[in-house]
């Protein structure tokens, strides 16, 4: 009988690439991970890893086992969900990961609804960047999480996760009042201006380099024929809008963050979209706690958007 915990370590090695990364994800020592994988090789009766110096790669047998192990892990998630479905009432922790804007706008109503309908749930929220959500789900630090991407920077789906759509947002160009483009001064409607083209010489408030928001801004601006010139870097949209209101630059703002802009900010809608999805481990869709969260946050999103 193969040990499920060791199978999970092998799958994580295939995903993360190094024993050190697997050890960090599980708060083990690299030596402990190596020992567990060696025991798995003895259980299988053939080599699963090829070691060259400090490098480790999967053998053909290792790759075959990973493919079947992912099926086993999905089946275990489905089993857990089925057992939870026959229990009386929802109890225990539900660990939720979400990006700051969603924590501020969508999660409060979601948590109130879940708390009222399922008082036995222990709701635990972690605020984190969407790029960190898949790893947290794989490592079982989260049960559900919110992912997002932009139509100009699509993210490849993770085959080990299932997702459902939550929100498709307009992205706005945030400008200080009086800054071009100003359709009224142009003598036309909103479509008369080239909102991005008129900011090619402006200072920009951009997210931290390497984040999805920063990459999306680069793509949008380069498609308009220029590279944005950053003056400030900020990842919290409240801070971004405050800097725009102070005349410190222009920025791109998704709809969730644009609900209540401060005085001195003008928002121009763009064709770019930001897309948010609810994610959980494959096989967990039928878990009652997962289903309850999906229903609650979808309702909270509809209410927030006034649908």
TrEMBL record:
SUPFAM superfamilies: Periplasmic binding protein-like II, Winged helix' DNA-binding domain. Gene3D superfamilies: Periplasmic binding protein-like II, Winged helix-like DNA-binding domain superfamily/Winged helix DNA-binding domain. Residues 177-198 are annotated as: Disordered. Keywords: DNA-binding, Transcription, Transcription regulation. Signal peptide: none annotated. It holds the Pfam family LysR_substrate. Residues 2-59 form the HTH lysR-type domain. It comes from the Bacteria. CDD domains: PBP2_LTTR_like_6 (cd08423). Belongs to the LysR transcriptional regulatory family. PANTHER family: LYSR SUBSTRATE-BINDING, TRANSCRIPTIONAL DUAL REGULATOR HCAR-RELATED. This is LysR family transcriptional regulator. It comes from Plantactinospora endophytica. The lineage of its organism: Bacteria, Bacillati, Actinomycetota, Actinomycetes, Micromonosporales.
């Amino acid at each position: 009988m193969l040990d499920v915990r060791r199978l999970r370590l092998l799958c994580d090695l295939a995903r993360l690439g190094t024993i050190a990364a697997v050890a960090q994800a599980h708060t083990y020592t690299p030596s402990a991970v190596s020992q567990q994988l060696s025991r798995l090789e003895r259980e299988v009766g053939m080599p699963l890893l090829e070691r060259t110096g400090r490098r480790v790669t999967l053998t053909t047998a290792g790759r075959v086992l990973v493919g079947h192990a992912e099926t086993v892990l999905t089946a275990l998630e489905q089993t857990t969900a089925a057992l939870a479905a026959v229990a009386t009432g929802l109890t225990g922790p539900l660990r939720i990961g979400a990006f700051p804007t969603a924590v501020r706008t969508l999660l409060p109503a979601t948590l109130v609804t879940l708390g009222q309908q399922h008082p036995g749930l222990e709701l635990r929220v972690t605020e984190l960047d969407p790029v960190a959500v898949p790893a947290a789900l794989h490592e079982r630090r989260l049960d559900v999480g919110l992912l997002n991407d932009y139509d100009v920077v699509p993210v490849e789906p993770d085959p080990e996760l299932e997702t459902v759509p939550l929100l498709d947002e307009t992205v706005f160009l945030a400008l200080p009042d009086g800054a071009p483009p100003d359709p009224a001064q142009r003598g036309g409607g909103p479509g008369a201006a080239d909102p991005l083209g008129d900011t090619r010489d402006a200072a920009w408030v951009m997210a931290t380099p390497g984040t999805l928001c920063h990459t999306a801004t680069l793509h949008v601006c380069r498609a308009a024929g220029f590279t944005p010139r950053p003056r400030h870097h900020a990842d919290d949209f409240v801070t971004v809008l405050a800097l725009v209101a102070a005349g410190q630059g222009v920025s791109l703002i998704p709809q969730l963050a644009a609900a209540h802009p401060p005085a001195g900010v003008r928002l121009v809608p763009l064709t770019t979209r930001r897309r948010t999805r609810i994610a959980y481990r494959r096989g967990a869709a039928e878990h009652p706690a997962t289903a309850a969260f999906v229903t609650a946050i979808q309702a909270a999103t509809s209410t927030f958007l006034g649908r």
